[in-house]
Amino acid sequence: MAWLFERGGELIARYLAKPAAGYAPFTPSDPERLREALRPGDVLLVEGNSHVAGVIKYLTQSTWSHSALYVGPIEDAATADGEAHVLIEAEIDEGVISSPLSKYSHFHTRVCRPVGLTEEDLKKVCAYARERIGLGYDLKNIIDLLRYLFPLPVPQRWRRRMMTLGSGDPTRIICSALIAQAFEVVRYPILPKVTRLESRQARRDILEIRHSSLYAPRDFDISPYFEVVKPTLVGGFDYKKMHWADLPLRHAETAGDGALAEGRRAEDTAPGRRARRGLGGTRTARKREPALTS
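and the corresponding structure tokens:
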């Protein structure tokens, strides 16, 4: 009987991982700028397009449905064309895997960076994730998977708890537990539970680490301990150089993009152009003849 539940779980996981029809990212990331901005330890949030992604976005009321940890090039892991795997992620139908950055080149993404993490702790976080590549997930707990097939209206206060029902590993996949556990190794906070103690002398906050199964991708975005990195701004941004569809090109030049105007000035100063202007393009002063007197 156990094999029947496991087989059923695999079929449901495959369906949930399939892309949903009609997805189009509103603002896809610039692949090159994203690659240049990423550093080991960064959390890459993704606006997914699978069936389960839609349910996660509904339950968390967020744009983000998936998260991956950037660890830099992974040894002996590359695509057929030689692109190195640099991400570690947990997929509902594959378990913990490594992936190339180009996998999300057509998706809306966001980079969340831990602030002040020491070099030693950063290595521990990345090592924790690397060591878990290849781990499988128990799909026999079919209840964990079935609830995502029926995204019925759920009161907001129950939505996060909905993602922690059951006891199977698919829960930890969806709730970004792999990355949360990696940061727990060095006790780096994400969204800790805060208990405030007050007295006449002082007030202090006692932090308590939440269970990793309670985390969702959006928690890295709203965490006060993670910095949101904008690759477009990191790479240098000049709004004067942007070309707008409703703005004629010559107006764009005067607004700040002088590349074409500079080219035209260079062309005008060329010897051939000067010669042509000398013949008929410009007026030359005529020498006045002396008046005849009788």
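(Above: one complete record from the training split.) Strands lie at 43-46, 66-70, 87-91, 95-99, 109-114, 193-198, 203-208, 226-229.
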